[in-house]
Amino acid sequence: MKKQVENWFFFAERDLKTAERLISDEDPFTNIIAFHCQQAIEKYLKAFLIGNSIALKKTHDLILLNNMVNEVKSLGIDGSKIMLVNEVYSETRYPGDIGLLPDGLPSVEQVKEFIKFANEVREIITKELAFDASL
Known about the structure:
There is one protein chain. By secondary structure, this protein is mainly alpha-helical. Helix content is 63%, strand content 0%. It contains five helices and no strands. The protein starts with a helix and ends in a 6-residue tail after the last helix. The mean pLDDT is 89.
């Protein structure tokens, strides 16, 4: 099980680092940054669930995953932020839909908040699992 948790963290870290690198671009692709933030949060939540011996559901729905986490233990992850970041995932995977909010492309300010929130989720999950995220 530890290896599975490490794998989820590894790929969550890559998504988060990608978002952090892209935001520093002169012309950041905010929809792609938002998408990577959503993916990072999803993977951190799944790492927590696996680390607590909870079977994963095939889903990208952050609301559902956060509810599953809360059934194990309330971690105080902001539900309103979960709902907002959840909007950027698209099941259709059409290029025009990826990383969009209901009103279109997220702003630079919004994706900076998404990155900050993804880091908050990372810290909460890392602490809860007593996981060395530097692996």
